[in-house]
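Me: I'm a chemist; would you kindly supply a protein sequence with its structure tokens?

Assistant:
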Amino acid sequence: MSIKKITILIILISFTLLFKGCTEPYEIETRDFESVLVVESSLTDELKTQEVKLSRTSTLENTDILIEENATVAVITNDGRQYGFSLDTETGSYLSNDEFKVDKDVEYTLNITTNDGKKYTSAPVTLPQKVEIDKVYAEFYEEEGKRGAQVYVDSKDLTGKAKYFRYEYEETYKIVTLYSITLDAEIVNYNEQTGEYDIILTEKEPEDVCYSSQYSTGIIQTATSDLTENEVFHFPVRFLDEENSLIRDQYSILVKQYVQSLEAYTFYETIKELGSVESLLSQGQPGYVTGNITSVQNPEEEKVLGFFEASPVTTKRTFFNYEDVGLEKPPYFYDLCQVYRLDYRDNTVLDEDRNERKFLREKLMFNDYQVVEGGFPLYYIVQGECSYCTLFSSNVKPDYWED
């Protein structure tokens, strides 16, 4: 069945469920479920620990990733080399026992033996032409009510050999809290009946600047095969809405460009058409797509979902914030940064409502700073996330960071 036919089928099914849903609730169910091995691996020309992901398809009702355990995984080359892989229980992936990189003009084949003795193999793959990223940059974007920062990539292959590209990114963002706190306040000796309590103050170093990172999901691809020039120009890889807190202080994105074969590009484009936008391993699959991996014992009848590829990768990083693209400052990461005033002379400064006092005592971190008025200390109590960014991030500055 062609991609077009599959897409039409999905559209028809969607309309059927839509109209049925107008009259009564409809729960999606999986019928005639078949457990299929799922393989996802892209070896690169980077000297590193390479990765192979193995799992099983799950029903539509089950969103868990079913890791294929106790498999024997190896990559062999046509010049006699062999690289073994072992399951890493933390990531759920099979990682190469030794670091290696894919070499040009060498064929690589993936061999898998599952715990039940079934064997699988991939078609031999070779490394496509490598292409450097020329530029990664952000610009103001506005269309159909959407406003924000759009990150683009430019790339050009002078040889004309590379025509299919896939992108991933790692984004890192700086967090500066709304309040810089130098005192920890602990409520002790709290009396449920009277609402009275004592305060213990401890000096501390401010934890008001942090850095967080996260990785892209989904399939981001483009092709130049239909263009007169073999050039990727102004291709969008990441959009950040004007309300996105990630660009509030300083934002960095590292874009990775993979050159693909036509077969790899077509496979992932079909997966994307079928609606698996996160990853091969992220959910129950909506349909079967033929890749380049087959069963050794039963190649005609047993299905295998996935693709094994070799890809050269290049990277480029850029930094910007909301001002650089002409936007207003986005809101803070937490929108409930309420400040409470507490006078140490008189516990009645706060509302007499005991429920409010109980909320303050149990829900807030009591991160305080001190202001002296008339010789008496006055404390402002704020939520922890509004003054301690280490509660949800790290205050370790990355080596590559530029302020």
Remarks:
- The chain has three helices and 23 strands.
